[in-house]
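Homework help board

Subject: predicted structure for assignment chain

Our instructor gave us this sequence and asked us to write out the predicted structure in C-alpha cell form, then describe one feature. I got the C-alpha cells but I'm not sure how to describe them. Can anyone check?
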Amino acid sequence: MGVHRSFKFLLRPSSKQAVALAACLEDHRELYNAALEHRRTAYRKAGVTVRYGEQSGELKHIRADDTDGQGRWSFSSQQATLRRLDKAFAAFFRRVREGRTPGFPRFKGAGRFDTVEWPKDGDGCRWDSQPRHPSATFLRLQGVGQVRVHQHRPIKGRVKTISVKREGSRWYVILSCDDVPAEPLPATPAVVGIDLGVASLVTTSDGEHLANPRYLTTSAERLAAAQRHLAGKKRGSKRRRKAVARVAALYAKVRRQRLDGAHKAALALVRGCGVIVHEALKVTDMTKRAAPKLDGEGTYLSNGASAKSGLNRSILDAGWGVFLTVLAYKAESAGRELIAVNPANTSRTCARCGHCAKENRQTQAEFRCKACGHSAHADVNAAINILGAGLALRQAVVPVERCRTAA
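My C-alpha cell output:
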C-alpha cells in the first residue's frame, strides 16, 4: 500500500521566467483578494452568501475581459486559488462553531501570498516525468514556459498536484504524490519513550540525549544586525527591498537548518526502534503569550510575560512541531509504530513508585522523589513515564482490536 508524500525541488528560471512567475503570483493574489471582496460585499449589502461554485463560474468572463492579465494563466490554477479562499471560510465557520477565536479571512498583501497550485499534472502545468538526465529536468507552466528544475532525488509514486512557491528570492516546485511505495525497515523489538525539551531536543527512556542545536540563537547576532540595517531604510526604496531580502534569507537558512536537524534526529530514532512513544504536545497553545492580569483598579499586575516570551522563543527555536511531523511520516514509511500519550504530569511522577508531586521536580535537570527518594535526570524520568503510558495504551487497544476481529 502506497503513502502520500511531497517532493520539493529548486527551480532555476531565467530572468524573463522569473518575471513571469512573479506576475503569475501577483495575478493569483489579486484574484484571491477580489473574490474575498466579492463575498464580503455581497453579504454586507444583500445578505447573500457567495460560494465557490458561483465564483468559479464567473472565471470565464474574467479571463475573457482580461486576456493580457488573468487570461494568461491556467484556468485550473485559478480555480485552486478560489478553493483556497473557500477553505479559509470553511475553517472560519468551523472555529465559530467550536467557540474558538474565529479569525475572519483577510486580504493577502504582497508578502502574504507565495504559492500557486495546479491541481492536476498536465492541466496548465506538466512535470517532465521521464527526463533524459536528472540535471535536465523541466517544469512546463502555462504563461511561463519550460523552467529548469534542480532535481536532487528521484520522484516516486504518481504526481497528483503541482505547486510553485516563492521563498525570498528563490522559487521552488512542490510535487504532491500518491501511491509512493513504503520502505519498511527490518523489524526490531526495541521500544523507546522520548521527552522533548529545550536543554536537549530529545531525551530517550534509555538515557540518551539528542542536543538542541538552537539555530535561531546561533544566528541571533546576524539577524539583529540585518534588522537594524533594515530599520534605517526608507519604505518603498530599492535599498529597503534588498535589506528585506537579506533578513528573509537569514530566516530561511534557520528554517532549513531546523528541518535538516529534525530529519536526522527522527531518522536515528526510526532506524533503531520498533515502537516510539511521545507526548501529544499542542505547541501552538504552549507558545501563546501570557494573559494580562488586572488588579481591579485599572492597572495590570506582573504576569511573567517576559519570562514566558523567552520560553516561547526557545520552544519555537527547538522546533518540536517540525520534529514530530517529520517523525510521524518517517515512522509510517518505515513501518514503525508511533504512539502519542497525554503529557500531563509526566515530569512530576516518579518512574519507580508512581508518586506525583510538583516538589519531585527540584530543578530543570534534577528529579528526586519525595516518597521513595528515587533520583534521576528529570527528562529521563519523564521519558520513562511516557514509555510506560504508551505501552499501557497499546496493551489496552490491542485486545479491543482482537475482539472486533473475532466478532
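Reply (TA_rk): Your C-alpha cells look well-formed. For the description, you could write something like this. Residues 191-406 form one domain. That's the kind of observation they're looking for.
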